[in-house]
């Protein structure tokens, strides 16, 4: 029997990732721009934040579901992840124990992993926040995890209120984390560029003295705040 045939069905090793070229393009945009054009959805609960505001991450999701307070399957993900992957941990928002610390982040960085997105606590936060490896987490706790319970690797997951499939695009920055379904990425990036161009133009107009957005009165009439023909 082959090694692959013996592998646990809980661990999926192969999945289609968003391409490196698309990841590089996506990394140029703010998470906020991408969230707007993906339909103002797909953003993780705001509890998941970078340990430093300067942290940024972009890459295909490698998903992990763990039991709260246990990081056994997180170690599995570290062992099988490919360079550029973002390890995304569904740990139910638990903050009673840390899912990882400096040692696991150091291992991940040496392996070429792009970053961690963890819906749970982490520790060694001072070291991580002052390091160069992106870690997004729901909080901190000095208590270490157990390593005794099974879970799932590279199965569909629900992370901080958002569905995440293996290979989906993850982008995180100072505002938080957005998830874009892998098959939608090319179209979303086209829309993101148009949105960025529009916002750049609007900011220039504001600086030139055009302070009121042109859409405001029309939307106020639709909402019944202004009567037809009435002006603000």
Automatic annotation (TrEMBL):
InterPro entries: RraA/RraA-like (IPR005493), RraA/RraA-like_sf (IPR036704). Signal peptide: none annotated. Keywords: Lyase. Gene3D superfamilies: Ribonuclease E inhibitor RraA/RraA-like. The keyword Lyase applies. GO terms for molecular function: 4-hydroxy-4-methyl-2-oxoglutarate aldolase activity. Its cofactor is a divalent metal cation. Pfam families: RraA-like. It comes from the Bacteria. PANTHER family: 4-HYDROXY-4-METHYL-2-OXOGLUTARATE ALDOLASE 3-RELATED (PTHR33254). This is Putative 4-hydroxy-4-methyl-2-oxoglutarate aldolase. It comes from Cupriavidus numazuensis. The gene is galC.
């Amino acid at each position: 029997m082959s090694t692959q045939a013996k592998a646990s069905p809980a661990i999926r090793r192969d999945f289609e990732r968003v391409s490196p070229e698309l990841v590089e393009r996506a990394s140029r945009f703010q998470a906020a721009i991408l969230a707007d054009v993906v339909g103002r959805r797909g953003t993780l609960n705001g509890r998941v934040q970078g340990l430093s505001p300067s942290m940024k991450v972009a890459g295909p999701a490698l998903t992990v579901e763990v039991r709260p307070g246990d990081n056994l399957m997180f170690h599995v993900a570290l062992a099988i992840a490919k360079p550029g992957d973002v390890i995304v941990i569904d740990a139910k928002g638990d903050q009673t124990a840390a899912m990882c610390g400096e040692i696991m982040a150091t291992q991940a960085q040496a392996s070429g992993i792009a970053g961690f997105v963890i819906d749970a606590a982490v520790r060694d936060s001072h070291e991580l926040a002052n390091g160069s490896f992106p870690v997004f987490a729901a909080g901190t706790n000095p208590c270490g995890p157990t390593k005794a319970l099974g879970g799932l690797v590279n199965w569909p997951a629900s992370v901080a209120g958002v569905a995440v499939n293996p290979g989906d695009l993850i982008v995180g920055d100072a505002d938080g984390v957005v998830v874009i379904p892998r098959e939608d990425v090319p179209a979303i990036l086209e829309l993101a560029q148009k949105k960025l161009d529009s916002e750049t133009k609007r900011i220039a107009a504001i600086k030139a003295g055009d302070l009121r957005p042109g859409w405001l009165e029309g939307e106020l009439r639709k909402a019944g705040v202004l009567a037809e023909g009435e002006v603000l």
